[in-house]
C-alpha cells in the first residue's frame, strides 16, 4: 500500500467532505431555525450512539484481521451473522422505546432511525472491509460521496419545505448510496461463517469496542447531554460551533486512518522502528493545522459565527474557543488511538477509553445539574481533560514505543 498516495486521497476526500458539510450546515442554519436544526442534530446523535451496540467493535475486527491476511470470506460471513443479530436487538429496542425517543428529539423519527441505522451499518462494514484489504485510498471517494449525497439531497428537500426532515432524508439517502457503493467495491466474497472466525473477531473486537466508544462519546455524548438539559435551539447553536472545528481534524483523521493497516502489517513483521518513525511524523503533521486554528478562533470566534451563520449563533463564541483548544489535543490523540489498535493493543486503548468516558460524562452532567446553561461548556472541558490517558497507554504498549514517546513530545509539544 502506498501510504503517501492513500493519505493524500483520504485527505482530499476528508477536506472536500468537510467543506461540503460546512457549506451545507451554513445553508441549513440560514434556512431553518436553531430549534429545527437541533432536531436533526439530536437524530444524528442517537444514530451514531446506537452504532455502538449495533457493532460492538466487529467492523474494526474485520479490518484488523483482513489486514493480517486471514481467510477473508469466512471472516466476513461471520461478521455479517454477528452484526445481523446485533441489529435485530437494537432495532427491537428502538421500537419498544419509540415514544421516549420521539419525545426526546421533539419529532416522530423512530422509524427513520431504524432505516438509517441499518443502512449506515451495512456501509460501514464494507468500508472497513475495503480498508482491511489494504485499499484505504479507494474509500476516499466513497466517503465523500456519502456526504455529498446527504448535503445535496438534504438541501433540495429543505428548500422544498421539508424542514428538519429534509436533512434526515438526505442523511438516509447518503447512507443508502454508500451501502451499495461499498458493497461493490469490496473484493472479499462472503464465505462460510464459523465459530473460529467469530472467536477471532471477538478476541480483538471486545477491546476495540470499548476504545471505539470513546470516539462516539467524544463526538456525540455532549450533544446528548445538552439535549437532555436544554432546548433544541441550544443543541443547534452548539453543534454549529462544533461543525466549524471539525475542519481542523481532517488531517489527523486522514493520516490515522491511512497508517492503521500499514502499522498492523509492520507490527506482524516486528518492524518496530518503522512504526515509531511513522507515528512521530504523523503527529507533527496533525499539529501543524490544529495549533494555528486555535489561535485564530481565540481572536475571531464571535465574528466567525456571526458572519457565516448569523447573529443567532454568536452566543456560541466561547464554546468555539474551547472546542478549538480541545482539537489541539485531539489531533494527536487520533494518531495515538489508531496506532495502539494497529499494534494489537486494543486492551490498552480500551483502558484509556474507560477513563476518558468517565471524565467526559462526569463534568458536563455535574455542570448541567448545577447550572443547565453551563453543560455546553462542561462537555468540552470534560474531553479536553480526559484525552491524556491515550498517549500514556502508547508509552505502556512496549519498551520500544515507550522510548519513542519522549522524542515525539520534545519535537512537537
Notes on the protein architecture:
With 413 residues, the chain is mostly helical. It has one domain. Helices cover 85% and strands 0% of the residues. The chain contains 17 helices and no strands. The protein has helices spanning 3-31, 34-55, 58-67, 72-96, 98-105, 110-132, 139-159, 164-185, 195-229, 232-246, 250-268, 272-309, 317-342, 346-370, 375-386, 389-397, 399-412. Mean pLDDT is 78; it is low at 363-413.
Mean pLDDT: 78
Low-confidence stretches: 363-413
Shape: globular
| Portion of residues within helices | over 70%
Question: What is the count of DSSP helices, taking H or I runs of 4+ residues?
Answer: 17
What's the structural blueprint in terms of helices and strands?
Elements: H1 3-31, H2 34-55, H3 58-67, H4 72-96, H5 98-105, H6 110-132, H7 139-159, H8 164-185, H9 195-229, H10 232-246, H11 250-268, H12 272-309, H13 317-342, H14 346-370, H15 375-386, H16 389-397, H17 399-412
Amino acid at each position: 500500500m502506498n501510504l503517501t498516495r492513500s493519505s493524500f486521497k483520504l485527505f482530499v476526500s476528508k477536506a472536500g467532505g468537510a467543506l461540503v458539510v460546512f457549506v451545507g450546515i451554513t445553508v441549513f442554519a440560514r434556512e431553518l431555525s436553531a430549534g429545527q436544526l437541533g432536531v436533526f442534530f439530536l437524530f444524528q446523535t442517537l444514530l451514531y450512539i446506537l452504532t455502538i451496540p449495533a457493532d460492538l467493535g466487529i467492523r474494526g475486527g474485520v479490518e484488523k484481521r483482513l489486514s493480517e491476511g486471514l481467510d477473508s470470506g469466512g471472516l466476513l460471513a461471520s461478521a455479517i451473522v454477528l452484526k445481523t443479530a446485533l441489529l435485530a436487538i437494537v432495532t427491537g429496542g428502538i421500537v419498544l422505546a419509540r415514544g421516549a425517543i420521539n419525545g426526546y428529539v421533539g419529532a416522530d423519527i423512530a422509524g427513520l432511525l431504524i432505516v438509517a441505522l441499518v443502512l449506515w451499518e451495512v456501509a460501514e462494514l464494507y468500508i472497513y472491509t475495503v480498508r482491511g484489504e489494504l485499499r484505504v485510498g479507494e474509500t476516499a471517494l466513497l466517503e465523500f460521496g456519502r456526504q455529498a449525497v446527504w448535503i445535496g439531497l438534504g438541501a433540495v428537500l429543505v428548500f422544498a419545505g421539508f424542514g428538519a426532515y429534509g436533512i434526515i432524508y438526505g442523511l438516509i439517502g447518503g447512507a443508502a448510496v454508500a451501502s451499495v457503493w461499498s458493497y461493490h467495491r469490496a473484493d472479499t466474497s462472503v464465505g462460510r461463517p464459523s465459530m473460529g472466525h467469530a472467536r477471532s473477531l471477538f478476541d480483538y473486537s471486545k477491546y476495540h469496542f470499548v476504545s471505539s466508544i470513546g470516539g462516539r462519546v467524544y463526538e456525540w455524548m455532549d450533544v446528548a447531554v445538552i439535549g437532555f438539559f436544554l432546548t433544541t435551539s441550544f443543541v443547534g447553536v452548539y453543534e454549529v460551533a462544533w461543525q466549524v472545528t471539525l475542519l481542523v481534524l481532517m488531517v489527523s483523521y486522514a493520516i490515522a486512518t491511512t497508517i492503521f493497516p500499514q502499522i498492523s502489517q509492520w507490527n506482524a513483521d516486528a518492524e518496530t522502528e518503522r512504526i515509531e518513525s511513522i507515528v512521530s511524523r504523523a503527529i507533527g503533521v496533525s499539529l501543524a493545522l490544529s495549533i494555528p486554528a486555535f489561535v485564530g478562533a481565540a481572536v475571531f470566534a464571535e465574528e466567525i459565527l456571526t458572519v457565516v451563520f448569523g447573529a443567532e449563533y454568536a452566543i456560541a463564541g466561547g464554546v468555539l474557543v474551547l472546542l478549538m483548544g480541545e482539537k489541539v489535543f485531539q489531533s494527536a490523540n487520533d494518531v495515538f488511538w489508531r496506532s495502539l489498535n494497529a499494534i494489537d493493543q486494543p486492551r490498552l486503548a480500551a483502558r484509556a477509553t474507560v477513563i476518558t468516558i468517565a471524565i467526559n460524562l462526569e463534568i458536563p452532567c455535574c455542570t448541567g445539574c448545577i447550572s443547565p446553561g453551563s453543560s455546553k461548556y462542561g462537555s468540552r472541558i470534560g474531553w479536553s481533560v480526559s484525552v491524556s490517558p491515550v498517549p500514556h497507554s502508547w508509552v505502556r504498549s512496549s519498551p520500544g514505543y515507550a522510548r519513542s514517546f519522549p522524542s515525539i513530545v520534545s519535537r512537537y509539544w
